Write a sequence for this structure.
């Protein structure tokens, strides 16, 4: 039994235990690792994430009542919720419940009817590691609810619904990148996404390259971190320059108009502008297999996240430096995800895998939080799967 088969078996068994019947349908949505373009999605910029072969699976069946019922199999015994469908699905004290309630709310707010259903949800995307377990959960739920209700929604519409649920019900002011990567990715490729227009292009990953995710072992809670503060700072910086979003600035305009600007806001804006500028050359290097160019871009990206955007930690900087030293020109490494913990991503020549492993092993001899290496394959986006 492979990884996915085991996960499917677990979610079906959990559905059966919760409701005394077998589910009628299964839906899956992957997590993601962002390769470049960090904290720029909510600034209308360009990003280059890659869906991974870890996912959330939703088992769904009919309900005889005019209710929506849910059980979260990864959240411990008694992790259940239920609400009526003929009244607004309000927020409650909780996290996963508000993903579900928010998805139903925003589908209904779009003028669509939601059919009564029972769902059970389970996944194997590491929680709190910066691999978008929450977006995977939201997208899988949105796809399941929409298809069960007979709606032919596009991946972008599914992503928008899941994002709205996370913004307005869960309380995290995330951009659209995570949900779009989960909903719209192509197997074997990264997803070049324009976060303003939602136009996408699959960027093939050169066969001699490998993507390695290094879990730092440091966990964080996104909605209680400084994530929302960073978004507010970016919006304030855009307001200072009189633009709709920081995507509308270039480096020269950023420097020319900084007079009277708070230094912290300027640093936040400098990260966003410089990070957007790294996306296109990174995509070209990824497709051509130029490991030395990838090394330069990833190292610059990590420095910017740590210095200008202030979302790294000393332990993450140390781990990144040790891995980068081991790689040299064979590839690069940087913080991925929102920061304040979570994972690093390395993009390198596949032959450099032993060097990464040795660097992590050396780091762990002195580290308070041992890091772990995980190998993920570039995966396809959300879809209905066979029971």
């Amino acid at each position: 039994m492979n990884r996915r088969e085991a996960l499917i078996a677990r979610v079906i068994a959990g559905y059966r235990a919760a409701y005394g019947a077998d589910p009628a349908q299964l839906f899956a949505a992957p997590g993601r690792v962002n390769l470049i373009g960090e904290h720029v999605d909510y600034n209308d910029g360009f990003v280059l994430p890659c869906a991974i072969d870890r996912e959330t699976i939703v088992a769904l069946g009919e309900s005889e009542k005019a209710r929506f019922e849910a059980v979260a199999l990864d959240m411990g015994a008694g992790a259940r919720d239920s609400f009526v469908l003929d009244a607004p699905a309000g927020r409650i004290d909780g996290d996963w419940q508000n993903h579900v309630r928010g998805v139903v709310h925003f589908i209904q707010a779009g003028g669509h009817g939601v059919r009564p259903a029972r769902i059970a949800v389970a996944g194997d995307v590491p929680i709190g590691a910066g691999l978008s377990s929450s977006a995977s959960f939201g997208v899988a739920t949105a796809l399941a609810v929409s298809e069960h209700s007979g709606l032919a929604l596009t991946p972008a519409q599914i992503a928008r619904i899941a994002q709205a649920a996370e913004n307005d019900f869960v309380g995290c002011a995330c951009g659209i990148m995570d949900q779009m990567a989960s909903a719209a990715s192509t197997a074997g490729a990264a997803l070049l996404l324009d976060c303003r227009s939602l136009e996408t292009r699959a960027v093939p990953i050169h066969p001699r390259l490998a993507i390695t995710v290094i879990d730092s072992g440091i966990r964080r809670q996104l909605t209680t971190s400084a994530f929302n503060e960073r978004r507010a700072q970016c919006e304030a910086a855009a307001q200072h320059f009189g633009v709709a979003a920081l995507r509308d600035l270039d480096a020269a305009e950023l420097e020319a108009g900084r007079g009277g600007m708070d230094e912290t806001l300027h640093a936040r804006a400098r990260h966003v502008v410089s990070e957007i500028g790294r996306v296109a050359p990174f995509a070209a290097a990824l497709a051509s297999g130029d490991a030395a160019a990838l090394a330069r871009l990833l190292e610059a990206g990590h420095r910017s996240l740590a210095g200008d955007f202030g979302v790294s930690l000393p332990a993450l900087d140390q781990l990144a430096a040790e891995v980068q030293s081991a790689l040299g020109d064979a590839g690069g490494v940087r913080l991925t995800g929102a920061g304040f913990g979570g994972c690093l991503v390395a993009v390198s020549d596949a032959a450099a895998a032993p060097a990464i492993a040795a660097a992590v092993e050396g780091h762990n001899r002195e580290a308070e939080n041992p890091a772990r290496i995980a190998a993920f394959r570039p995966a396809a986006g959300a879809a209905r799967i066979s029971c």
Notes: The longest strand covers residues 46-62. The domain at 205-375 is CATH 3.30.70.890 (Alpha-Beta Plaits). The chain has eleven helices and twelve strands. The two ends are 15 Å apart (CA to CA).
